[in-house]
Amino acid sequence: MDSGDFTDAEAIHKLPPGVALSWGIVRQQRRGPKGELSVKKIVDAAIEIADRDGLAAVSMSRVAQSLGFTTMSLYRYITGKDDLLVLMQDAVSNIPIPPEEADKPWRQEMAEYAWACIDVFRKHPWYGDMPITSVPLTPGNLQVIDWMLRIMKPFPLTDFEKMSFLLLISSYARACGLIARDMERVIREGGSREAFTGAGYGEALRQLVKPDRFPHLHPVLMSGAYTDEAENPIGDDLDFGLERILDGIEHYMRQKTADK
């Protein structure tokens, strides 16, 4: 596919090169022998490096070396590192989308969406280090957005309201994904879950956090809730927060329907 397949070629050409390449609408020039390399091989190699050594370890030369080619060989397929990063992000966002089920509760579907997004941050710790430079533009990202909009198809909401709720759930999933990623990184590097949650520092904090200076934190700390040292009656904090967000969406829709 190239820009000639579209009626408005000028609009297509305004897309950033990496985005255009993710859609397969950039005609590649100066390729090497058939089967030598491909965009997918390059992107897969870059993801493997990032998964193992972090985003900072990814460079065109490092990827080329891992594939046994010269750096210039890669430029026949991808114009530079920035475009490579776009393609990496799109590739790991291309997650399996569950089939539509007519009787599945929308809250369950939204929870599945959120945890699938969280899982991307856990599987690819570098994903959260990617800068956000625009709304999603690549097909892998947009396919996930389409999944969320499918869930909201019967909702009595405007398109703007749906997009706002999509941003709300996606932002929460991003925050949870970063927390889960960072905790797993601490444990992988020799730390402990207790240290991450603060349980190992509870006694010290109880001596340092005085009620005159921290009047509202002090009772929470003393109860063990702050450092996760007491039995948690609400279960998983992240799941609890997600359920409250879904409560808010449900309440909003009920109120909107009642006001009509």
From TrEMBL:
InterPro entries: Homeodomain-like_sf, HTH-type_TetR-like_transc_reg, HTH_TetR, Repressor_TetR_C, Tet_transcr_reg_TetR-rel_C_sf. It comes from the Bacteria. Residues 59-78 bind DNA. GO terms for biological process: negative regulation of DNA-templated transcription. GO terms for molecular function: DNA-binding transcription factor activity; transcription cis-regulatory region binding. Signal peptide: none annotated. Pfam families: TetR_C_1, TetR_N. Residues 36-96 form the HTH tetR-type domain. Keywords: DNA-binding, Transcription, Transcription regulation. This is TetR/AcrR family transcriptional regulator. It comes from Paenibacillus ginsengarvi. The lineage of its organism: Bacteria, Bacillati, Bacillota, Bacilli, Bacillales.
